[in-house]
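Bench log, entry 3. Co-assembly request; chain sequences pasted below exactly as received.
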Amino acid sequence: MSSTGSTTEAPRRAFLEGGHALAEAAIQAGCRFYCGYPMTPSTEVLEYMARRMPEVGGVCINVESEIEGINMVWGATGAGVRSMIASTTNGMSLMQESLSEMVLGQVPAVVVNMGRGQGDYNQCTRGGGHGSQRLIVLAPANAQEAVETAYRAFHLAEKWRHPVLIYGDFLLSHTSEAVTFAPPDDATGPLPAKDWVTDGATGRSPRLLTSLGMRVVEAPEDGLAIGPGQTRTDVTAPMHMAVARHREIAAQEIRFETAWLEDAELVVTAFGVLGRFARYAAQLAREEGMRIGFVRPYTLVPFPYDVYRRVGERGIPIAVFENNAGQMIQDVQLGVLGRAPVHFIGEISMDRSGFGVGPKIDALHILARLREVWAARSAA
Amino acid sequence: MATTGEASGPAAEMRKVFTRSPLLGSDTHSLCPGCGEPNAIRVLMETIEEMGERGNTVCVLGIGCYTAFGALMQIDCQQAMHGRAPAQATGVKRVLPDRLVFTLQGDGDMVTEGLQEIVHAAARGERFTAICLNNAAFGETGGHMTATTVLGQRTKSTLGGRDAGRHGHPIKLPEMLAGLDGVAYVARGTVHTPVGVKKTKKLFRAALETQRLGLGFSLVEVVTMCPTGWFVSAAEGPRFQEEKLLPVFPVGELKRPRDLRV
Amino acid sequence: MAKSVGTVVIEVDACKGCELCIPVCPPGVLSMSPSVNAIGFRYPILRDGCTGCELCAEICPDYCFEVFRAAPSRASAEVTA
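Structure output for the full assembly:
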């Protein structure tokens, strides 16, 4: 199988649902192994891949569980092929064991969570997993950004040899928009050699792709090695490496969007597609004379704590809008560290299926909440 | 320190007829005295060497005592999560269809934790070889019940012996999988006697040739001694295996493709 | 004293004293040492009469045996039962 395949029919510009656009961009970024278990609202990624992967000589598998799926992606990535899986919320919970160990094992796969509401923020950024696990988490706000995120995700994954999670939702997956397929500039640079790929040890030493710290070669100072020059297992070695890697990632890869911070006396913040709603609400508020600024974190991990710190240092209150019971607000508070008030103006708002968009996902609703916070701020 | 029968070492007219496979590296391993797993892994490595597939093979390791062989085996290896090696091997084989891909798992890994993965991989007819080292116990944790622990077998979690009413019956995975259409080759071997070890090597060859010919999924279960997990001395392992395990897990080929010559 | 048509070289310090090699030796020329090796285990020692049949090597989980056999043509001493 070719790792690039034919992309002669690849569209350069198209009007597509976000899920389809993300899938096409992944293929154009070189993804040649995809698997998924159908679940709303990530199903469309699977449907698109089932049609497109055979056209480019890739593999698409409708798996029997998310647990099988993530481990197939582990295997295919380890074999040197760019691989991706998309799932939703509960399916992501099932993958947590493997995601945890893929950080430790440095398996640079791309995982997409088209979630229900935004209730998976903690799951995506902390995870229900174990060990010293933080993924790189990217939260696109629209279909074009989803396209760019797909290219960037594969680039970052291999740059850092670290799994990358793209966190979207029902709105991102199902909203059709015009998109252009081209990698962003930051996703086109040279990447380190893939000297970890296990594809048969022809003409080189055999390799072991492991999360367990096996074949650690060290002088047996602590007496753990059986003899001089022998390898041993140090399960903590991958954890120390993951923590050090994450520190580097946090120093280099933070991305966010801001507006009107210069004159802001109140800042509204939201992530993902809801960032678009919040920004529009802030714009409407400014037309009413309220000096409201806007922050949207694009990298949820690493989180742009400094942006919030600077807002907090000016004593400016922050209103956090999320479609959940209040999860990102904890990261905002960590950035502000008590320097300014942080208000939660979000809530769980889906349709009764639990999949779709509820009545509070509305710029006018956010505007109403901003008026309340603005008034309370003026009163104080 | 090495010793021989003759103080001066082998006489000049003697030729070496048996030595450690280069695919096993030169390090010692950490498995218990009398463990059967190293025997199975040794003949597996010999088979790959003899097939000329050394540089064309990817092993996916489950989690168990044998995982330590990831540091010894001189072939490309990926370590998987407990039970998930068949899914990971599917990912490898699908993107590298011309490589020889096998999983190395135990009964706790494949039959207890990972039953879904192995059954679906078999049903899909994935063209890799699954190898189950079945010692009817969780050896690494110190002797607890797995899905293949036989009735009456005493473990730390079946203190009076496994009881069908309280703990259920052991799963005979080869018998279970042989009925699936995607499965081309199924066999069970043993390593408690030298002859058993030699025959197991032939089963590995047949399974890997099945894969090489692209005939479908192949499985070899190898019954291995675990004196630690059985609470017997290392020297008593083979007898325990003969008397307690092999009546439940009879050795032989259960399914074989018609086109297979080896 | 039986003539040895084969012999083994035993990597003594890799032995974990499981004794599996002792009963499988057809001429019965392996026995456990009274002393222990570097990691505290008794290990097999070879007396005269080895046939080079390889059965000890087949059963040894710690890869301790290298087996040598006399080169000239002779009836195979290998036991296959």
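Chain B has one domain: 31-255. Chain B touches chain A at residues 27-28, 30, 54-58, 60-61, 67-68, 70-71, 73-81, 84-85, 87-92, 94-97, 99, 116-117, 120 (CB under 8 Å).
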